[in-house]
Amino acid sequence: NTAAQNATSFNATGLTPGTNYFWRVFAVSEGALSTSLSGSQATVGAGNISSTGGGGLWSLPGTWVGGVVPTAADNVTIVPGATVTIDTGALAFTLSVAGTLNWEATTARTLISGSDVVIQPAGIFQSAATGTQTGHVLTVGGNLTNNGTLDFATNANTAAAGITFPGTTNAT
User: Fold this and answer.
1) What per-residue confidence (pLDDT) applies to 101?
2) Which of 29, 41, 70, 163 is deepest in the core (most CB within 10 A)?
3) What Cα–Cα distance (Å) separates residue 54 from each residue in 118, 139, 158?
4) Rounded Cα gap, residues 47 and 40, in angstroms
């Protein structure tokens, strides 16, 4: 990537948690490259965030144990008995659904998982039981494992969601 002219720092985004990255930095001047500086820096490992027993809206801190809404650097678990509704652009590094995870009924939302999504044997991941929103999108950066219920065509097939796999390697 390229930093802005005269920049003394660069914010690298979209990095994988718990990964060691190697960097080479050059200065560019009138088409010439300086001698490189090199080094490495590890990203912080993924955090673990679980829903409360009752669940709630994804965007609300009260839905999550510890009161912290998940980010792209978090392993997220929807616990048994909880129902969480995706009411915002939602992020997770990994996602495990042992309770119920729903898309909201009215506004198209995205859930981006940087790695694997697993629906546990009693878990349910579904589009809304009401409404006609069909624009929801689940993006899975790794594999999708369905050992429970994955139903993205609900409300007599008038509510729906799509699934994308953006990776450059095969996924299952």
Assistant:
1) 98
2) 70
3) 20, 25, 27
4) 22
Lowest mean pLDDT, pick from 3-7, 74-78, 89-93, 137-141: 3-7
Residues 136-142, mean pLDDT to the nearest whole number = 96
Taking the model in full, what pTM does it have?
0.77
Is pLDDT at 63 greater than 80 in this prediction? Answer: yes
In whole angstroms, what is the distance from residue 86 CA to residue 11 CA?
A: 28
Helix, strand, coil percent values for the chain (each to nearest 5): 0, 45, 55
Token pair, residue 88, equals 């915002």
Six-digit token string for 151: 């139903």
Q: What is the DSSP string of 69-111?
A: ---TTEEEEE-TT-EEEE-S-EEESEEEESSEEEE-SSS--EE
Whose tokens are 């990964």? That residue is 19
21 touches 14 (CB < 8 A): no
CB contact at 8 A, 139 and 89: no
Give the closest residue to 58 by CA, choosing from 78, 41, 74: 78
Q: How far apart are CA 88 and CA 91, in angstroms?
A: 9
